[in-house]
Amino acid sequence: MMKKVFINISLLLVLFVTFSSCKKSLEKQFNNPELTSQTSLSTLFTAMLNSDRVRPAYWNQRTYLMPHAAVYSQTATFDIGNTVYQQNDNYTGNYWSDFYYPAGNGSGPMAIYRTMEKTFNALPAAEQANQQVFMQAAKIFLYDQASKMIDAWGDIPFTEAGSLETNNAIKDPKFDDAKTLYTTFIAGLNDAATFFKTASLPANVSASFSKQDILLTGSTDKWRRYANSIRLRMLMRTSFVDEATSRTAVTTMLNNSAEYPLIDGGGSASYSPASNDVLLQPLTNYTNTPLSALTEINSYSAPDYMLNTVMAPANDPRIPVIFDKYGQTAGGKFTPNPTYKAMPITFTAEQQTTERTKFAIIDSTTFLNNSKLPGIVITAPEVNFLKAEAFERWGSSASAATAYNTAVAQSVSFYYYLNSISPSGVKVSAPSAADVNTFLAAPTVAYTGTSTDKLAKIWIQKWLNFGLLQADQAWSEYRRTKYPQLTFVAQNSNFPLPPTRLIYPSVETGFNTNYGAVKSKDTRTTKIFWDVK
Known about the structure:
By secondary structure, the protein is mostly helical. The protein has helices at residues 9-16, 23-30, 41-49, 58-73, 89-100, 109-121, 125-153, 163-167, 178-198, 203-212, 220-237, 243-254, 273-276, 291-295, 304-311, 319-322, 349-355, 364-368, 380-394, 397-420, 433-440, 451-466, 471-481, 506-509; strands at residues 156-157, 175-176, 278-280, 323-324, 327-330, 333-336, 361-362, 375-378. The chain is 51% helix and 4% strand. It starts with 8 loop residues before the first helix and ends in a 24-residue tail after the last helix. The model is unreliable at 1-34 (pLDDT under 50). It holds the Pfam family SusD-like_2.
């Protein structure tokens, strides 16, 4: 059963036209303390970070990731049917509006940031210098979240969004050009990283920042690395549409690690995700798990290509912590399936229903019953995959091999870490270094072949690493690289295959008078600007 409480949005829209600007109505409706002018920057900052759109919370998994990005990237399974590739307007509209206005649980980063700007600008100059750390960190987080909006929709309202928070004016925000916003974000992330390089905080500000920073516990070094790493991700995402710019910026970063430190785990295969990655940990009183989100819409079976084509042939050591063999119950006795095998993507709806128990499912300890799963912002494996691609395309293939092998090995460490933190279930001992090296030498994994072969291996392993928890990133990278080479069964409907972008939800198109400027591009087959390969 759905667990999110809906509000009477239509009533609010009659008064305030567009979701992107409806702060005061929301304050009245919810008595929301997040957006009052008296609220401190530090409190607003915490509210911004405390996001159920980052953590693997029920609503985000059940209504946004699993029925959309995970289907379009095949990082989770789905029920075959005529509407399987159709976007659910209510659900994507909810995700859209959760970016623009706060309704609890960290939603509304756009509105919260605008309120922070107004609060900051009202401070005396001396106090602004002390409080700058909150604004720079919030900017990094906002740009990260906004880039995911662009990756899903393309042009979005941004520069004029939040006018009510900024100057108490109700204004329909224009849709900003997606590529221009990416350029702005990339430059802003570099500025933020430069700030954190030399940031020296007074004792009282340092204590407050450490307390309120529920993402990185006040570490200026990790905020610097976070900014550089998201910038690297964005530069690589645009590297086929503007290769010269990306190549110059990325090679500068990778050739000077002291000046541009990254979330890369120090290049250690057996790194510590808890210490090195950017992970939004669950609150201490959080008890929910992904079980309902994945089982309600049958997203819990093992994906065909991932298990059958990529992992099983390589005897991938991640299999026991990502999947469970599952099995059948007869006469009150449960008999596990003999091997890890995924249900074929070509099954009909009837076959899915009758044959599901004969195939592997998502592991219950690591995923289904794990209330300690963090929200994944960016990890060392992803960063090293990005480095590997950059080295292979623009530098040394030997350096690419080192980064690739490190990334794959770190992915093994990461998934065993997720298994180890689960409060229940069977924990699996991590493989030895020798076992991981054997895996890295498997023909389908080993960094061999032509440059095209090597890039394909980088992209496939990165897609696998994203998995269902980062299905949005997996979908973006699938569209950018065209790997893995997935098979999609066409449906006899108006939505025969997955879209190349989400269409704008009706909560925006029905009320923002600037929609006309982007209406011609608002089709499910229009490509995001970086999707040119």
